[in-house]
Here is the input.
Amino acid sequence: MNRKLLVIGCGGVAAVAIQKCCQNSEMFPELVLASRTVEKCDALVASLKGKTDTILSTAKVDADKVEEVVALIRRVQPYAVLNVALPYQDLTIMEACLHCGVHYIDTANFEPENTEDPAWRKVYDKRVEEEGFSALFDYSWQWTYAEKFEKAGLTALLGTGFDPGVTSVFVSYAKKHYFDRIDTVDILDCNGGDHGYAFATNFNPEINLREVSAPGSYWEDGKWVEIPAMSIKRGYDFPEVGKKDMYLLHHEEIEALGKHFPEIKRIRFFMTFGQSYLTHMKCLENVGMLSTTPIDFQGTKIVPIQFLKALLPDPASLGPRTKGKTNIGCVISGVKDGKPKTIFIYNVCDHEECYRELGSQAISYTTGVPAMIGTALVLDGAWRKPGVFTTDEFDPDPYMDMLNKWGLPWVVVEDPETVE
Amino acid sequence: MNRKLLVIGCGGVAAVAIQKCCQNSEMFPELVLASRTVEKCDALVASLKGKTDTILSTAKVDADKVEEVVALIRRVQPYAVLNVALPYQDLTIMEACLHCGVHYIDTANFEPENTEDPAWRKVYDKRVEEEGFSALFDYSWQWTYAEKFEKAGLTALLGTGFDPGVTSVFVSYAKKHYFDRIDTVDILDCNGGDHGYAFATNFNPEINLREVSAPGSYWEDGKWVEIPAMSIKRGYDFPEVGKKDMYLLHHEEIEALGKHFPEIKRIRFFMTFGQSYLTHMKCLENVGMLSTTPIDFQGTKIVPIQFLKALLPDPASLGPRTKGKTNIGCVISGVKDGKPKTIFIYNVCDHEECYRELGSQAISYTTGVPAMIGTALVLDGAWRKPGVFTTDEFDPDPYMDMLNKWGLPWVVVEDPETVE
Here is the structure.
């Protein structure tokens, strides 16, 4: 059968997903790597030469344009498209997949590139009012494709990264094997890595800032509760990492879990931030260095945050120098056989080991590996059914097996520390 | 007699000194204001029109060039020159005064503009080794002029600002009226002002940074003790301001006091810095924003600290919005009539009152008023003797009287809080 996969995007996560596919040549006998910057694809192919049985080729594509993606799919004739490009491009690529009759997989849900676009804004404002959370991204845009994918007999698997992705599989796995009823889920994302700089960002500081300065929200009793940015702080002692402060943020898997597991009374997401990181962000914000509005400087217009970006270490340079581990998982409480029960399912990932294996630190690694796994399960048929789905809507067992096999082993601890 | 004064410099301190001279027209019947930017002088003269009996005129001068200053002095024929320009220009202006036979007064001791200059560096390195303090400024350069001024029958009065300046007069006043022997002096400089910005600097951030990041030093048992930057921190409850944290810094009056009062066992200088100010400085330093080395940005060379300066509020804009007070003074301990004794002599200055009076906040006010006073005493003859002197080498009484009269009233408290 046709197992050719078209991968769109060639950044840090894509590089991990592609290398993992190349380790799994039986499942992925042929990949076509496409990006706006085809040179990045060519360089990756060159680095993999002689190291894999997977047949690799490359192509140039502007994924903002449905017709370009359609033309590429027609030429390549893949079985599925793995979208590891920007989340702005989810809808154009889904359209193209529908048009050509191929399956679709991605890792992060749609958000608009231009949040000032009046057409988008109108839908957004309505959603904020009806749903009560103001994050700029949500699943609604992609879920509206459900009927079309179902009718076409195609699978769209959304958000198969770590969080969202693995964290949702952890919940469905817990429900299948550990609970009769789940009452609360706390998703904890801890990066205990240290790159040795006083301050650096793992990705674009502008996006980093947006995350830290946006209101947080969580799901409780069937509705959203929104809180001021960074206003709920908790400590947690993470296995293999240690004690960290973490803050409640909005995160996309909450939306899917709330919809698919109506029994769950409360779902929250916490991410760790060091005090030093937050202090630097605040100080830079105070002096205006995070502003996106250009200022006049010696006759030129300069955007402060872009100047800051030029001063900060290139996120790509952090890989070889980052030490320490991530710990991402779910603290899940509920009832089994009439008795209250709590478990913590998590994965620990070591930045230096990831870098030695694939030349990427754990942030890209933990997202790229699940992208390969989700795609493999769609190709394999185990996770193939007509419609648009998140990772909590399939049998978790084969996914959990593959996590152990492909570099993200998980642990279940009973009676763990809980989050207040 | 000729009481014409030539004032070189037209920044914040100069504006205060000039306005104070104009309030004291009897002593200062005629001023010539000179600056590289003559427009600043013209604007100040325009603002004083009709408000003073002092005759005012302006001139353009580049004070880096001895011959330009000589030509200006020859043309103006003043009795003395008040140098409130940059401390880089102390030596050229002193040379010109000697050449033309006029008295010289300044507020801050010499430092080189180019600290990489090998000729200067050689002398500096020798001084650091011999004296044991590494501040970039010291009195040695100006003290070498002592014999020349003495032979010429001219007075050079150095450092008649607040600190140095008033603080040294406080010590000689204490010695004259309160002590048989002084054992320790702690000079405390507290700015309790609040400009309402999360972060802003009272003057050039580059000079601010240099102050905070330089090693501290103090005088003990006849020699310098140098300590890492900001490593000695003390709290003090300042009258009319309240409790503040302060840090030991090197400061120029210590050098003069140590030389002229060999009985004093220990002389230290402390300045208050708020934790928020220090945190911002540190964060900005960490990300490279305080660097003076240009970086390539979008095809242009940009010096980070200059870009920062463009983002920060203009120091001149702080005046109208700064509330609160300064408290600067000396905690002096010693012996009187065989008994131990401690006093605190200090002045409290209110930012808003200064601004209402002269359009400057207290930082410029407290330096500019003593510049006028020292100059008046040289013109008057009370502080005129041949040679090069600091303010601790004259009778303190007329200076102390004038502080009370001209806006910087002082207080003596017996048995004050001491500094550990």
